[in-house]
Amino acid sequence: MKRILLIIQFLGTRYSGWQVQPGQVTVQGEIERAIYETTGERVKIHSSGRTDAGVHAMAMPAHFDTDTRIQPENIYKALNTHLPDDIRVLSSCQVDEHFHARFDVKEKTYEYHFYVSPQPLPYFSTTEAWITPPFNFDLAKSILNEFLGTHDFVGFASARTEVTSTIRTIKKISLSKTSKDHFVLSVTGDGFLYNMVRIIAGTIISVGNGKIAPNEIKSIVESKDRKRAGDTASAVGLVLKNVKY
Questions:
Q1: Which of 38, 97, 158, 196 is the most exposed place for a label (fewest CB within 10 A)?
Q2: In 3-state terms, what secondary structure has residue 51?
Q3: According to the model, what pLDDT value does residue 155 have?
Q4: Tens of pLDDT, residues 61-105
Q5: How far apart are CA 224 and CA 203, in angstroms?
Q6: What CATH number does residue 205 fall under?
Q7: In this predicted model, what pLDDT tens digit does every residue of 8-35 receive, in sequence order?
Q8: Are residues 63 and 7 in the same domain?
Q9: In Å, how far are 6, 104, 187 from 38, measured between CA atoms?
Q10: What is the rounded average pLDDT of the residues 43-71?
Q11: 163 pLDDT tier (thresholds 50, 70, 90)
Q12: Number of structural domains the chain divides into
């Protein structure tokens, strides 16, 4: 039995998230189907985390155990012949039998892509979230440091969060302009609560469009009150950038 690590890229637009769900098309389900069609084995694949419907990934790590005779470094090629065009396994390799794609994670980086326009732009409809003007970039950028460090982020989590601790550490956070009226928020942390990045993004966007005053952010973080934070930003703009072990 070998443990194989896959690095997976996918466009989440037409999927009901990562996790297998009855009657739904999911990324995990598609990959497990491809593994069965490649090896004849019914396996469960374990990812570094779950993504919601519509969320994308540039490099999602996941592992599974197999008895296949296919060389570990060639498994990704075989799987790709059974996967749809919006899911691709970028690489595969054998890892230690004790490695776990989820529990061994040291840090993750997510990006949130959005654009400002009076109306939605079809070209960006699947990879960038649309927000209406006004948006003050400098104002939004000025409050980023309030999220840095170790905090109880329960006020930035969905009610569906099921964890023993809501304390997380944000190591890096930045907001940049990729082109006129197009922006990307990058957040790196040791882990994230359910919808945490999308709620942080929604809060920062709310500062930029004047719905939340910049001087309120520190107290909002400290309050641990979900009602004081911004809306949960659309899943469309969220992408898992990378994971480190």
A1: 97
A2: coil
A3: 95
A4: 999 999 999 999 999 999 999 999 999 999 999 999 999 999 999
A5: 14
A6: 3.30.70.660
A7: 999 999 999 999 999 999 999 999 999 9
A8: yes
A9: 14, 27, 36
A10: 97
A11: confident
A12: 2
| Residue with token string 């469960």 | 44
Q: Over the range 84-120, which residues count as b (16 or more CB within 10 Å of their CB) and which as e?
A: eebbebeebebbeeeeebeebbebbbbbbbbbbbeee
Spatial distance between the Cα atoms of 139 and 205, rounded to a whole number of angstroms? 10
DSSP category for residue 134: P
The Cα–Cα gap between 2 and 16 comes to 29
Positions marked catalytic = 52
Q: What is the pLDDT of residue 162?
A: 72
Residue that has been written with the tokens 């996790």 in this structure:
19
Full residue range of the structural domain in which residue 45 is found:
2-95
With 70 as the cut, is the pLDDT of residue 161 above it?
no
Which residues lie closer than 8 Å to 36 by C-beta, 6 or more apart? Answer: 42, 43
Q: What is the mean pLDDT of the chain?
A: 96
User: Is 172 in the same domain as 69?
Assistant: no
3-state secondary structure of 174: strand
Distance of alpha carbon 78 from alpha carbon 61, whole angstroms: 17
* CATH code of the domain in which 16 resides: 3.30.70.580
Q: Are residues 121 and 154 in the same domain?
A: yes
Pair 133, 227 in one domain = yes
Task: Give me the DSSP letters along 52-81.
Answer: -TT-EEEEEEEEEEE---S-GGGHHHHHHT
